[in-house]
Amino acid sequence: MTLRTLDEPQDRNSRRQNISRGILIVSKTNSPGGCAPWAAKIFAGLAAALDAFVKEEVSMSLPEASTQVTGEQAPVGPAVVSIEDASATVTLREAFWTWLRISLLSFGGPAAQIAVMHRIVVDEKKWLDERRFLHALNFCMLLPGPEAQQLATYIGWLMHGVRGGLVAGLLFILPGFVSILLLSLIYVSFQDSGTVQSLFFGLKCAVLAVVAEAVLRVSRRVLKNRVLVVISIVAFILLSLKLLPFPAVIATAALVGAFGHRFAPNIFRSNMSVSDSPLPSPAGKGAWKETQRILLTSTIALSLWFGPILAAAHFTGRTSVYTQLSIFFSKAAVVTFGGAYSVLSYVDQQAVDRYHWLEKGEMVDGLGLAETTPGPLIMVVQFVGFLAAWRHGTGLSPLMAGCLGAVLTTWVTFVPCFYWIFLGAPYVEKLLHKPWLASALTAITASVVGVIATLGVNFAMATLFSAQASIPVSWGTLSVPVWSSIQPAACVISLLAIALMFIFHRGLAVTLSACVIAGMLYNLFT
């Protein structure tokens, strides 16, 4: 095993060869296994080519030559372990390409996305040490919204201020937005095609296993005592019987945790750790300067958030689908604690049962699309916005209406995420040292287990049964499956997905591919 410096000519040639190999991966990608591996290979190939390009650019810009191990490749990057050194050493240009690479590899939900971010930012680039990274993750878990995207935004803000936060956060969203938009267009254009129907038949069955895995993963991490288990069960009952809406369930859980900390702090104890040294803050010193920063941040962010809502109401009317989408997903953005799966239960109830924007089975299709593309799983709301505007939009062609609905939905979902980060980032130390706040988050996360379980039950009824019945009860109606409409093939493929994930411990791509192939084979021979 030999060492060589990055600025040697032969190393640059190998970098160019790596670029070519990365592009070759893309050109040869043609997997019949379904959407997930096809997309994963394309984005992985692009990321490999991009990584080679970035490393060459970095090697030319570093003040001192870095070293690289040949034979078994070791990660290359500035040898820094403090955020102050990283901010001074890493240029915004290098950060741009690195965040783009991370976004292209961000498949598989928040856990996998955070793992990718940790590997590149902490292990490879060494922009942050372990403690700083966990500190940042703890802060993002306190906020509503997709924690992986907010973690990227926060780390970008730490390194390069608002510009860095915008670059990291927007790049984390962009590949998923483009992918979901194209897939949504394909979905509505070829929805009646037998090939597309068979593809989504298997994809829906795989989604059931994915949601079940999310329930078990979160429950193992959160449900540490009987009180938290009771909170999750109560949340499941309240949502399943439609006794309380999702925001009320989250607010109630937060109050239980906050007050419960005062009387039984051990029950709601959080696993969050706080670093000993304070994180840097770009905010000006003094109360007046800080007030100016808050006012400026709030004015800009709230204008960007509510401006499109007011414009939609003015130009299309208060009852138009564009205004309804903007208002509804703005509310959803405020209560998205616990990740995408939790808020999807709320979106599922409102978009399907109240607004009738799409069918319950189509909601499962949307989640399947989001699982096969990079970026936050919450991008499924873009699919909902596209279908809603495609079918109910007025004044525009279906294509333009769908695109406008997708843009509006994505905009009001993610602008608040940037607002929370830029407004609250300088107060990370104070927030993480508030035990009652951590206890409230613990109770919220416990309720999220019940929320995700509700989502799984709803998706199971839509996938495994072809018909549901509404039973009138004192507080409204209760949806139950019609047992005579059970679909044996869907049950078998769902069991296959569960076996692959829980028994054979296969990844998301393998599970999705196997179920898609099984679904297509079933439709081919029936």
Radius of gyration: 24 Å
Classify the secondary structure makeup into a structural class. Answer: mainly alpha
Strand order of the largest sheet: 1-2
Percent of residues in helical segments?
A: over 70%
Share of β-strand residues: under 5%
Quaternary structure: single chain
Structural account:
The protein has about 525 residues and is mostly helical. The protein is about 70% helix and about 5% strand. The strands form two sheets. Strands 1-2 form a two-stranded antiparallel sheet. A two-stranded antiparallel sheet has the order 3-4. The longest helix is centred in the N-terminal third of the chain and has 43 residues, at about 145-190. It is globular and about 70 Å long. The N and C termini lie far apart (about 55 Å).
Write the layout of secondary structure elements.
Layout: E1 3-5, H1 9-27, H2 35-61, E2 67-69, H3 83-89, H4 92-104, H5 109-124, H6 130-141, H7 147-189, H8 194-222, H9 226-240, H10 246-263, H11 287-316, H12 321-334, H13 340-354, H14 360-371, H15 380-392, H16 398-424, H17 428-432, H18 435-464, E3 468-473, E4 476-481, H19 488-503, H20 508-524
Antiparallel strand pairs: 1-2, 3-4
Helix pairs in contact: 1-2, 2-4, 2-20, 4-7, 5-7, 6-7, 7-15, 7-16, 8-14, 8-18, 8-19, 8-20, 9-18, 10-18, 11-12, 11-16, 12-15, 12-16, 13-18, 14-15, 14-18, 15-16, 19-20
